[in-house]
């Protein structure tokens, strides 16, 4: 085999693996991308029931209700609209009323949201960038704690 | 006063780094030995100054000097000593100081241990290394000075985020940074080689130990982070494909590929251009990791308060070094001579396959991590890319890699005998399939992919053993001769086998815990019992206690299995004093077959406590595998032929020594 043929085999197999990966990536993107919406987006963008997405905003004050068993009810708001959320499981330590939250799940036909994930955060002052940005776009003023001048490398 | 000394030595280190960046490279250009050797003393001096600076900041933290702003923001007088020390790097400014300290450590190691590097190469490497230090020192001094004073000094500090007050996490950043920054050595060597336009097997022999050391530290650092997330976050997972995790995983993948391509270059002088490119990309991914983590542009569950403005500066530094190095690469790579020939089916061919799969896998992780940013920039849509994406793209690429892994080390250089190797691996493959069938029959139905992955994990593990046995000619020679050969195998052979076995063991842990985990969320009142995976947990109640800087609610569980007492689990919830923040401490019992795991939730109005119970089969193998990989790397690093500073001697050994 000449040097050229050998190089051809090498490059050829590289290209084959790369294109397999590219197909996998396209396929996976179609299957597994999750959109992010705020409560007022749901009406604006006509989000359908049964489709998985992330709902983000602030936990409405006074809305957290712990029922019997392990289901928790709370409301997520961007001050323009509010969505009732029901979640079965353990809430993260830093879940609090009046603070930013991101949940993932599906909308029910009645307009409530069944979350199977409530994203935990490790820092009281952390506001997920989508939440901060969408709240800003909606004209909601964030407290001084939303941006905190110190970070770690973890 | 001591803080000012720290600040002052930091400025001095910058001055020294500026000189180290220019003088030796100029000396290499005009071939002036005196100017070139200036780099050695500068590198050592720079490291010395950075040590003083780092000790000054540590002193401020240990003595709780609240006139230093950084200490006020990140420490508290009640904190135990170990967390006052780890608080030094538990914040942006301090962690940057640790970053430049490690950068200086590697630079001075080249100066001290690289005595027999060609003088021009050493001068250029130290020059490039210093330029990285200059960029980060400027960044620190202008935007992130850890020694800034505050007047009047407050009475006490704000404390360190309690979730970071943990032994595994105290040492996670130093290891991670040693990995990230260690790859800067490969980068500096690559750029220096491009500047000289000359690169050979000796170059690879010098680069490999540094890359190996960095890779070991990164492996352990990532494993510590994963271990911490597992027990501290109370949700029982060990990997979430979160952007911050991916940021550390991408350099690991690229670095693993680099280790293997450098091997081809050292032994066969092939893949030169690719190795250089990989060295540049690996460090660029490390810088990108630093940017992603600090800038907070992506939503991460692991994000701590971040600072977008300063993150952007790191992006600038990354673009400067990556762009500059790639431009130099485009200009000079053509001048590098082609190396040895090899057939596609050979050790080289196997290592190329390893490189292609690892770098393509790294690329899919990169695409998945950055796609949300790109889409938001283009369409304004906000999306997230979660674990399903990575499972669908990353796992299919890893399966052929695992399958090929045992073949690689058994293949001959240049032209391999696939059938012969397959025969030698028949036992390993047979055992792997047999084990898997038995286990699958015992555990009952699960996901169809799980037994396949488990078989691959076992195949990798047995394949590593086969490699050692066949190197010692097991079966071909008498038992005494075999034992003599086992003892005298080169340490690098043991290193390879251990590192590969570590991967196999890790795969078994991943399969066990992902496919066969049991989870239960329950609300229990004192005196009630729950059952998970055959264990009965009796909830006895909750007792309050006090720790050094927190108050704690400890729950007691009596664990029994088939009526026999197993253990007592004590999961708890803590409320720290400063900052007042709750944390969940999981109660974990490690059995041979897996971990029993209890994490507490909230107390309900009825008096019941919600809690999460898990059984994670084989989960410990994940971290055990990482530790074995680290040990394998260390053994390989101690090989005389690989030892830093001993490359020439190894080369001049008489060729008459029998190969096996």
Helix/strand layout:
The complex is a heterodimer of chains A (154) and B (660).
Chain A: H1 3-32, E1 33-37, H2 39-44, E2 52-59, E3 65-66, E4 71-77, E5 82-88, E6 100-107, E7 113-118, H3 129-137
Chain B: H1 2-30, H2 33-62, H3 69-74, H4 81-86, H5 92-113, H6 119-143, H7 167-196, H8 201-232, H9 243-268, H10 272-295, H11 308-332, H12 347-379, E1 383-385, H13 387-404, H14 407-410, H15 418-424, H16 426-443, H17 449-471, H18 479-488, H19 491-516, E2 518-524, E3 529-532, E4 535-546, E5 550-561, E6 564-569, E7 572-576, E8 582-585, E9 587-590, E10 594-603, E11 609-617, H20 620-637, H21 647-651
Antiparallel strand pairs in B: 2-11, 3-4, 4-5, 5-6, 5-7, 7-8, 9-10, 10-11
Keywords:
heterodimer, A: 154 residues, alpha+beta, OB fold (Dihydrolipoamide Acetyltransferase, E2P), 2 domains, 3 helices, 29% helix, B: 660 residues, six-stranded antiparallel beta sheet, four-stranded antiparallel beta sheet, disordered C terminus
CATH topology (fold) name of the largest domain in chain A: OB fold (Dihydrolipoamide Acetyltransferase, E2P)
Distance between the amino and carboxyl termini of chain A: 50 Å
Cα-atom Rg of chain A, whole angstroms?
22 Å
Task: Determine the structural class of chain A based on helices, strands and strand pairing.
Answer: alpha+beta
- Give the neighbour order of strands across the main sheet of chain A: 2-4-5-7-6
Low-confidence runs of at least 5 consecutive residues of chain A: 143-154
Assembly annotation: heterodimer
Task: Describe the protein in words.
The complex is a heterodimer of chains A (154) and B (660). With 154 residues, chain A is of the alpha+beta class. Chain A has two domains: 33 residues; 107 residues, Nucleic acid-binding proteins (OB fold (Dihydrolipoamide Acetyltransferase, E2P), Beta Barrel). In chain A, 29% of the residues lie in helices and 28% in strands. Chain A contains three helices and seven strands. Chain A has a five-stranded mixed barrel. Chain B is 63% helix and 12% strand. In chain B, helix 2 packs antiparallel against helix 5, helix 5 crosses helix 7 and helix 9 packs antiparallel against helix 10. Chain B is globular, with a radius of gyration of 27 Å. The C terminus of chain B is likely disordered. The interface between A and B is large, with 57 and 83 residues. Strand 1 of chain A pairs antiparallel with strand 1 of chain B, so a sheet runs across the interface.
